[in-house]
Amino acid sequence: MAQHDTGEKSAAAGSAVDRIESSRVSPGTAVELSDAFVNPGLPPHRPRVTDLNPKKAKQAERRVYTLFYVSIIGSVAAVAAYAAIPLVPGDNATLRLSTALLGLGIALGLLGIGIGAVYWAKTLMKAEEMVEMRHPTRGSDDTRERAVEIFQLGNEESGFGRRTLIRNSLIGALIATPIPAIVLFRDLGPAGSPAEALMTTMWETGMRLTQDPTGAAIRASDVTLGSVFHVIPDGLLDKEHKLEEKAKAAVLLIRLKPEDINELPERAGWSYDGIVAYSKICTHVGCPVALYEQQTHHLLCPCHQSTFDVTNHCEVIFGPASRPLPQLPISVDSDGYLIAQSDFLEPIGPSFWERS
Ligand code: FES
Prior knowledge:
single chain; alpha+beta; Rieske Iron-sulfur Protein; 2 domains; 10 strands
């Protein structure tokens, strides 16, 4: 009997296992049909001290706008510290002081807004729990009207329109906070006027043309017909910011038959015995124009295929560049070396605001 019972139990156990096996589903596809937890509902509403005591509410309001003013002061102090402490290369003490004051000012600027906004929400904005049901993305007209109502209610409850000191100080803090970032970004550009730096290059009267990258001076007799030289100004390799200078002053030197050159009257004398020098910086977006087609006398920019005709003062014959490559007036000195007659007479490279 006992054995029989055991056999029945085992059979029941076996069939239970079978049921479990047969109802097993792939991971991630099981759906829970019943909610195992009872919704606890919202906790009872407890009014805050600022809801009950107008004096405390006034105190909280003062703290909020004080925090926003602290934010403004922090941002202004960061700019003042940046302007008042000039950085001297090699002077680490000044660098540390400037960095510390900048960090402190920016931290105050951001923390003032952040803490002020949280404190404002916690103490003065209406404390009411609400349940919002899910709904389709675009609401009905009624819903949209309700949204406007809620927005207006939010404005009324937060006191944004009514508490003018808080509102104005917050607007002031939001305006002042990005100012340190703008001032710091200015440092990414060249010292002095960026437009001025783009107007001129290293070239000057009498400066020798030298080979890139060796810096060897070039004699006119070295430049054979059809040859191309990549050129940098003499002395560039000794400059502190040689890459910046090279990015503006790089030149291509080409020798053509003098009769092939269609020289503009105002540029008479800018070339020497068929040798012409043009800026290597593309007038489209500033890539180096590095390809020369000897047969057609075309210079090609590999970036967007702008093509310049060397025989016709490097006018654009194809591609997105809108201006010819600027020409460097050249000559030879008494030793037969090629020299610049002056700097370029127009800004090199792509357009910028102040380019005439
Ligand atoms: S940079 Fe030369 S074509 Fe665009």
